[in-house]
Structure formats: C-alpha cells, structure tokens
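cron nightly-structures :: item 1 of 1
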Amino acid sequence: MKLKPKITIADHFFDLKDPRVERTRHHQLIDIITLSISAVICGADTWVDLESYGRSKYEWLKKF
C-alpha cells in the first residue's frame, strides 16, 4: 500500500497572501495560523483563549 505524501500547515497555506501592513507585522502569518489551529484543537474559543494558549506554550512552540 502506497502512502500519500505528507503535507504541512506551511505547505497548505503557502499561497495565502498576508493582508497586513509590512511595518505592523510582529509575527509571521504562518506562525499565527499554526498557533490558532493548535489552540482551537485544544479548546480555545476566544482571542483571549488563543493568547493564553500561546503564552502557556511559548517555550514549546518556539522550538518549531
């Protein structure tokens, strides 16, 4: 049985254009998307939940 090739979050969102103004960008868009997906999977329902998740997992997330 042949397995399908793996696709990463970055591969999936590769063509997504960042609508933010260059000078106001503090984080890469792919980092925000990855954090958001991870937080929602873990039960985040609000922007506050998303921020709390990001802060609590910062040391682990920066490895990637």
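cron nightly-structures :: done
The chain has a mean pLDDT of 90.
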